[in-house]
Amino acid sequence: MFFTTLFFGGIALAIVGTGMGVLLTRNAVYTVLFLVANFSLVAVLYLVLGAPFLAMAQVTVYAGAIMVLFLFVIMLLGAERLPGREPLKSQRVLALVLGGILLAQVALFVVWGFNNANPLPEAAPDFATPTQVATLLFTKYALPFEVTSVILLVAVIGVIVLTRGEITSIRGRLLGKKKEE
Fold it and tell me: pTM score, two decimals?
C-alpha cells in the first residue's frame, strides 16, 4: 500500500513537472516532447489504477498519433521557436493571480480535505474493457468524440493559417536575396 502511494505520488509529480515544461519552454518541438512525456506518464497512472485498455489508448492515440501530427505540423511550418516578445502582457499578471488561487485551493484541500477523503471502492473485473469503452464512446459520447476531432482539425488549420503569412514573408526575403546575388 505504501509503495503504491509513493509510486503514484512520484508519477504525479513527474506529470506536474512535464506540464510545467510544456508551459515554460519557448521551443515548440520541446513543448511537444514534454507533452508526449506527460501523456505517457498519464498512461502509467491508468495502469496503476487498473485500466490497461485506457493506458494503451492513451499511448496510441495521444502520445502516438496526435503528437506526431502536431510535431509534423510544427516542423513543416518552421514554427519551432516562439517570438521573443510577449504579445499580451496582461496575460502574465492574470496567470499569476489564477495560479495563486489554484495553489491556495490545493493547499486548503491538502490541509482540510485530505483527511476526510474516503478510499475508492475496488473496480469491477469488467471495468474499462474494450467492449464497454466502445459501447459508451459510440453511443452516449459520440457527439463529444466528434466535437473533439473537429476542434483538433481546427487547431491544425489555425496553426497553418497563422504561420502562413510569416512563412511567405520569410520565403520572399530569401528569394529576393537570391535574385540580387
Answer: 0.59
